[in-house]
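#onboarding

Welcome to the new folks! Below is a worked example of what a typical request in this channel looks like: someone posts a single protein sequence, and someone else replies with the predicted structure as tokens. Don't worry about understanding the tokens yet, we'll cover that in week two.

Example request:
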Amino acid sequence: MGLMSEDMECCVCLQPYSRREKIPRVLHCEHTFCGLCLQAMSRLQSGVLTVCCPLCRWITCTEPSLTLPGSLWVNTEIWDQILDRQQEEEEEWKGANRQTRTTTHSPSRHCGLRLKLQNFLRRMKSLNFPISKQEILIE
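Example response:
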């Protein structure tokens, strides 16, 4: 089954998944985010490493001896398509020989995701979770 373009990016940072830095990891609730965002959202509480899913609020717990991304499964459906998608984009880029590259993401979709992210960050602040500089810049 093919994935839509929005499934190929982390809905927290809005960056495309990759096989090196933005590895798609699955929380116990089965929602997927990049490992870097999960690490940034994780908290050590009572000797357990936890992360609250920004979509459904399900809390995923792991042992603190492992990094959170390292203890979660990779979303193999996305992982398998990362290379295929990159190759397709390179071929389109070369074949089209255009000066500007058209994007597959609509601006209105990104605005909607940005609004959801801003609401999520406000809720995190209200729960007294520390917010990083990067998250503050988004607001």
